[in-house]
Queue: 3 jobs
Job 1
Amino acid sequence: MSESSAVPAVPPAQRPLMPLWAAVLTAAVAAVLMDLSYPEAAVWILAFPAVGLLLLALIGRRAGGALLVGAVYGVVFFALLVSWTSRYLGPVPWAALSVVEGGLTALALIPLTLAYRWVPRAFPSPVAKVVLLPSIVAALWVGRELFVGSWPYGGFPWARLGMTQAQSPLAPVTSWLGISGLSFVMVFFVAVVIEVVRTRRRPGPATLALPAALVLVLGFTPLFPTTGTGSLRIAAVQGNGPSGYFDERESFSLVDAQATATEPLFGEDVDLLVWPEGSLDYDPFQTDALARRMTFVSSRVGAPLLANAATERDGRYYNTSMLWTESGGAEQTHDKRHPVPFGEYVPDRAFFNALAPDLIGLIQREYTPGTNSSVIEVDGVQVGLAICFDVIYDDVVDQGVRDGAGVLVFQTNNADFRGTDENLQQLAFARMRAIETGRSVVNISTVGTSQIIRADGTTVSSLDADEAGAMLENVEIRSGLTAGVVLGPWIQQLLLWGGLGALLVGWWRARRR
């Protein structure tokens, strides 16, 4: 073959940095480190080397190799992160969730490795390699999070990178850029460092200026300012009743456990009494005996009771929170916006029932997604609500704050995951929501851990897991929208479509060059 017709070799900068077997092992190590950055370990700084190792394993790979590397990372990571799903139902749901989410992660990581192949060819300047390439890689990372978090069946946005930083100095960034914005900045920083290290020349001051500036942004960004407008005296009760799916219980055992734990609050000055998700045994709108118990508790405390139960309306079931008043009854209700697939309903039931009839048969009710407001009014104060896993979906929390919520209340039932990391992970997400929105958060669980959290993420009051108890605090009300709430959805769309668009431009220019 003549020199003029020879196929040009792949430039060294775009060859894999390690053989495939080493990349697979590196991806597995990255998955372990990423899991350790989430609660219970919550070693937040490990998220950075986890991202770095994964990117190093992807650089220079073709699509098939990237798919394998991504699959190892995704399956190992999700298997560790959501191991709590096997607590009661066994290994099948855990393995299925890990494989599905890991497979989707693998598919969505392929664009990152393509960016490392195409962008340096399309834009060979040093500035493009240190600035443009990392920004595209970081945008594609956020796009991957949005994809996995929204599809299929509404997605599972449990594993967003920004959520690892709930107790780190980086958390205030979310009040400016949102959760996805923090994910972008973190990946951008790691990708910039990788490119600076990969340069064969000794980096000069100009080259080092960008990562240094990113360190300052990440570590020293203040909270976006919001305004305190008063307080609401909120009592939150953790009954520690038999609220698990397979717990043995007698009639009215849930409401009795909650009522017993509420008794120390009788005679106290309370504006709002909050019980967790799953705090009622039956539908109070159809069970007079339960309604009378709720009215009694509300009267003795002297405040409306925010409780939760499965309700039925027009032949449909809802996961409903209701504000029960001393006069009996509730005019303000909120239905869970995102029922959990395979937990609260079964999509494509006939198909999945053929695969696992015993497991699918356990889920008898088909909960309907709520469409009503996530805000209730208590003494002129707007209170934003999110039920259980709704806390991980941006639309529910953001809409509540946009509709005027001055404080947020998250009700959850973690009884099926006793003794696992699930509650601590969800609590970390609630803490991050407080910081992102600039709102105090009351996070109340049936079995713990429950906390009242300030708008800066610090803890006001806490109840340990597996213990009954009550919290009573003057919870600060705040007004004003943070930049993270206002700009967050726009930043997500910009990163999603901007990253994909830049990748396509890189592919087109690389082919032309």
Note: Confidence is low (pLDDT under 50) at residues 1-10.
Job 2
Amino acid sequence: MQSQDVAPRPAPGSPADRAVDVEQAEAALVEHYPRLVRLAYLVLPPGLGRDRRVLTAHALVQRALPRGRSSAPVIPAQSTARDGGPGYAYVRLQVVRTALEAGLPLRRRAWPRRAQLPPLLPQVWGLRLFPRAGGADELALDQELAVLSGPARAACVLRGLEKLPDGDVREVLGGAGVDDAEAALREADSLSARYALLDSPEFDPCALQARPTDLMRRRRHGRAALAAAAALAVCGALVALPDGGWGADGAAAPVYARNPAAEAALDPGRLVRVSPAAWKTSARTDFSVWPARGDSTGDRALLRRALAVWARPGATVRVSATPGTPTGGPSGPPQLLFAGDADTARVVILYDGLRIARYAEPREGTAGAALDFARVDGATGAEAAAVVLDRADGNVRYLTAPWVTEAAERDLSKPGAGLMDLTLTDGITSPLASPATRAGACTTWNVLELTDASGPHLVSDLGELVPARLTAGRPTRPKEATGAEALRTWAPFACSLGDVRGQGVRTVNAWAYARQPLPDDSGSASWVCTRAETWRGDGTRVLAQFRVPGGLFGAAVAKAGDVPACGPRDPHVLAGVLWRSKGGSWYLLAAGDKDTGSVRATGGVSGSAEDNLLAVRTEQGARAELRGTLEDGRSIGGLR
């Protein structure tokens, strides 16, 4: 439940510099704990991640008590009409100071401050905790707070949450160690219209949701721990044996020997760098002929950090991978595709022949580093034409292949809307709106059109490192989805791409397999089958979709996974739907592809047709089994 606590105001006439003992501070902390934790959560750097921010905010507030009697700061608690003591002002100042310290970059040859380290207490094992999701306004505010400096975030929170006037904000910031409070206030002015949102449940670290951590990774760690314990027991037994142990070790390396191949994979000097002109003479059109781009390809320290994190990601690194993509270190020196700045991050993109690995860290420090993987084995042509460089504010930018000559943005749901050209700078596109991270109802779906010597290609961001290629036509002969007919086929069903976000999708094909006259002179409906193929092979997703005349979007009427239907191995499909005519009558409609010789319905509805289209009058809620017979005599079932 959202806390309605308000910060107290010192009692009128109380001396501002009177001593504060532990009991006073503890009473203020307990009474206003939800507000203090919210304050800490908002001031902490968003790069920590929501789970660590929640635990760190609680830890900072719980450590804010004085060790003995301390002088109260000459700072009012809040300009409200409520009475209180100096205890709250003291605790609040400690929370602001430590939250600002937590955002400072770690320095070499200097001990980190306690607030910069992960909290020892509280601890939660096996769960990730984060506040409830808010709306678009809260998300926008969170993104805007993320780009502010720590003192500016503190100024926003003291103004908006604590309702302090600017003079008191300056004193709080000065007491917390901020050198230039005026600059922080000026930077915070841009968010003055959004202060009311700071009380939103989106920023309440006391009302939390829980989700499990990476279960597969926990299982692997458990197995590794058991293996390590077993190895330790064996080593102990060997130590107790006479010299020579149980015999020769054969080809095994000596204990604790360093593996040369593993060392080479972590050496920035051995990274594979392809000539910028290699793609022009090579017969290959894949990631192996991409040159290294970016303004930091010579930054050995950055490259070393990226390689080290790939091999041994720490507990604070956010690791993500498309389904079926291994996350282990490279077996040898990988190929460098990009190293440089992208918005507020420093990015390194690497390729090892099987995977694309993207390492990103803040421009200042390494807290909040992220490591993303995508499987790309066998990618060629349009499948190897672009990689996501960065995402920010709902937009995405791509690093494109060196053979890409033009880039443009298109709304797939509006085939007649035309293209919006994107600039290409050293292969990097200007930002375009990403449909993969958008919340709410789908009304548009923006895709990227890339042009090379073979013509235009269409790809869509599905929330992963590599966009999915879009095609249209019969599964045995799919074509690029850039022609007028292909765009008309895709338009009503563009939003169905949201069903395969984050699934490791390689290509999605849309096949308009039938057109059916509707009963009661209601026009003709279109049947389209979409099939999403994945990089790993399994996990395919097939949707049969139906659209009536005048409908803006189609509707998915049947869904199946890991089936050959609607694919190159079995280019056939049969699906049905209950449909209500303009006259109010209900019908079972079914359609197969052109190779379907007959269709039969059994169960709750009985009927048959000697071609690929069936329309049988029935009642609302009726259920039926569909069977079809192909012209070669083979039987097929309805997709469901």
Note: Confidence is low (pLDDT under 50) at residues 1-17, 74-84, 238-257.
Job 3
Amino acid sequence: MPLPVHRAEPAPVPDSAIQVMVAMRDGVRLATDLYLPSGHDRPLPAALVRLPYDKNSRYVFMDRIAAYLTARGYAVVVQDVRGKFRSEGETMPFVHEADDGYDTIDWIVRQEWSDGRVGMFGDSYYGATQWAAVSAGHPALKAIAPRLTGADGIRPDYWERDGVTQLFGALYYAGYWTDRWVYEFDPDLTRRPLIEAMTEIAEGIGARPALWDSFVPEVKPVPAFPHGHPFDGPPLPVLHQAGWFDNCLQPSINDWAELSARPDWAPLQYLHADSIDHENYHLDDVPVPPELDHAHVDAAVDRLLPRHLGPLVEFFDVFVKGEGTPERLPRVRWHHGHLGDRTADRWPPAGARTLKLYLDAGGLRPDAPSREENVTWVHDPADLVPTLVPDSFAALLHHVDESPLHDRPDVLVFTTDPVTEPLDLAGPVRATLRVGTDGPSAQVFLKLLDVSPGGSAHVLVRGQRLIPGGAPAPVAFDLTHTGYRLRPGHALRLHIASSDFPMYVPHPGTEENPWLATDGKTTTQTLRTGGQHDSHLSLTVVDTVSPS
């Protein structure tokens, strides 16, 4: 029996928008909504969004975003990318975005309502379309504000990092990039080989996503910048917008760090990091009550917009409108969890220092243990450590207590004593572990959690990588960044395991491709603590978080 699949149809074009079919250089026409301020009497700067998720869907609430921006003097242009919903052309992510972005900007500047200046903004894939347009180099593009994304993020090679593959990548390409529609499905991910679950999805939809050939069973690069990488072109003002609880945080931070280190780009780089997940749920609202769920409640969207768009408008007013000077903008603004909004002239902020915590007999301690010890855990492909959060993109909506995992024998935990004073994290979190496996290789998953006085544990940051077979050896882990206050009475806990399923494709314990493996083999991993080459966690902390 075929897998049940639901297909999402395009939502109606709102009365506030004028839909235009804009021709690209090859004659393909892209469905484009134009929103103009009522009663405008002069040419306007344009705020452009190019997305694949139906420009008129409730999910993207572009009509509400447009109302906010038109009220502040911008024409808003929202476009379905090539091959999606009302737009013509083949359905293939990434490969057409540079030229289509250039041609769309070229169409904008030829309109009578345009003043010839364009800024681009948007989340996730519609952050990737911004970087593609930058690579094409249209002179009218004055600034971009990519949010929860990265220049090299979300392509197939993003979903496989350090030898570990996010299963969601394959599900995403099937659900959103098989053809012009969006599909929802619930495949049987316990099937082995795992690639049979992908076949089940394709049979349910009735077609195979073209990009799967670049992802399953092996990841291959997808060309996205035919005119060269955007970082190698002329510098452009960028507002990097990141979420501390976003599962795409790393690409956002990577872009900020790399461009801030380039002398020609650095003066034009700005960072805004908020305590949000990929779906824009906020730490301050946890646990999220039904009336604040913006996925379903319009009033919750209206409440969200000033925080969502306020920094963008300030940035565009300077670099797109040309009103005011860059000095009025904070170089870095971030939400410090459980404390509030802060600004600084750099990230990490001035005064940041490294605090090392050493793994020792189940604890995380400030002093290195002198005695060397080995601790082991088992990876059994038939009994995987489960992913508890049902949707990692909405981590704060679910805000799952991970403590039930910590009683499993295949999960190691190391916990600090509860703090008596606030501990403020502000910057990167890294770990160096001496770890090995008796298998050909192994996955190692790290999570750093906030443990409440009641014992619940919630993820702050995470990192993972593949380690080679052999005796314990030093391995470096990047757990991304955070801005967060650990409150008195709370503790930090480091979780170590070798699976996190179904968020990640599991290791079979053999040398087989994990998509193609049918039978798994149990492996034993060894962590070495203490002695000459310790295992430790490195936190970036500040003693004082200055008010904005």
Note: The chain is about 20% helix and 35% strand.
